[in-house]
Amino acid sequence: MKKYLLFVHLIILSAFWIQAQDSLRLYFFLAEDCPICRYYAGEMQQLYADFQREGVSFRGVFPVKTSSQRSIESFQQSHDIPFPLVKDVNQFLTHKYDAQVTPEAILTLGDSVLYRGRIDDRFDRPGRQRRHVTQHELRDALTAVLAGQPVPLRETQAVGCFITKQY
């Protein structure tokens, strides 16, 4: 049964990979037990509402080994995440994009990474939250790309729960 599930997950990831070759894609690396991921659920919903009609394809990626399909589905339902979520079974996407923490956003066009990092500056370090967001780096990157402009800041330091890498 485990081999069958692994095979199904690999097929799903392969389909996402093939489809992503020429499209603007936003990956959110997430963990269902990370409080910062739960906090950003509303912002992810808003980004989806604002940009999916513009042709941006959204995917939530769960790189944590202990994430189960049931816990991912529960996260999606309890936080009303409107885009597909997938478990990164062998951390293929995690290694490809060198994701370090959850949540971390990676904006790609084909094989090119256009932006990587935090969603905004709400958290400047784990456990420390600002009263007011002053920088919306991910939103700024999406807006720039869709306007045919260069991304103003291509990389920021994402703040969140560390991803344990499997090698």
List the helices and strands and how they pair.
Elements: H1 2-20, E1 24-29, H2 35-39, H3 41-51, E2 57-62, H4 69-78, E3 85-87, H5 92-96, E4 101-102, E5 104-109, E6 112-117, E7 123-125, E8 128-129, H6 137-146, E9 161-162
Parallel strand pairs: 1-2, 2-3
Antiparallel strand pairs: 1-5, 4-9, 5-6, 7-8
User: How far is it from the N-terminal to the C-terminal residue, by CA?
Assistant: 23 Å
Strand portion, in percent? 15-25%
How would you state the average pLDDT, rounded? 88
From the structure provided, what is the oligomeric state, counting identical versus distinct chains? Answer: single chain
How would a textbook summarize the main sheet?
5 strands, mixed
Task: Report the total helices.
Answer: 6
Helicity, in percent?
25-40%
Q: What is the level-2 CATH architecture name?
A: 3-Layer(aba) Sandwich
Principal-axis shape: globular
Q: Can you tell me the CATH topology?
A: Glutaredoxin
